[in-house]
Amino acid sequence: MNFYKLLLATVLVCVLPSCAAKHSDGKEMVPTIYYKPTINQKSSQCTADDLRDLLSPEGESLVTLCQKDFDLCLLQGSCFVDNGKEVISYNYHSIKDSVPRFIPVDLKVCPFGYGVRSSCLDPYFSVAADLKYYKPGDVIFIPRLEGAVLPNREVHDGFMIVRDSGGGVLGQHRFDFFTGFFDHRSRQNTLARLGFGDPKNRFEYRMATEAESQAVRTKRNYPGLKASALEEGYLTRPHR
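^ thats the sequence. predicted structure below, dont judge the formating
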């Protein structure tokens, strides 16, 4: 008798619109992770021949880095540079005369840097996608993420906003997940523990409905960040 009651309850729950809306539609993604690294100039050593200037769009030198640190900043799209006196945030801006250009970022506005169209990157809730298939502000739902506990103890609702793009993010099912100051090796990185840092993994996803998308964009204060996100400690301190 108990078995039939349980079966009936399950059926009733799964026919509800909310249950159906949460379901994926069978599409699978290829995931990777990117983050915002901190570069410590004092501890990073290289020869004079291996130094590289981070240039502004106007061609002015913003800071001089070792080539490996320059490459890391370019690969991740943004970085902190700790010069021993202050920590400055830099963000990739554009290519001019075949040279990458960067801009400083106001940490009070976008502590993690900018995505596309000057939107703020929102760790664990923003993703880079191929803009041939998606537009900034599009929302996807990933069942694998729903209920995951984040480093600040927030519980993930499974929804991600397209806030960024990238040279290596090509194809309709290719997504790069932004995880703030934690890279794919960090035990504190919730998405890494769930397997989103391994492109061999596949996870189901679907496009959010328009009603869901509007609610998610409002909840995350797109294209900005939630006020609480700017105040939380793990969002405002660089992690190495």
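The chain has two domains: 26-35+111-236, 38-104.
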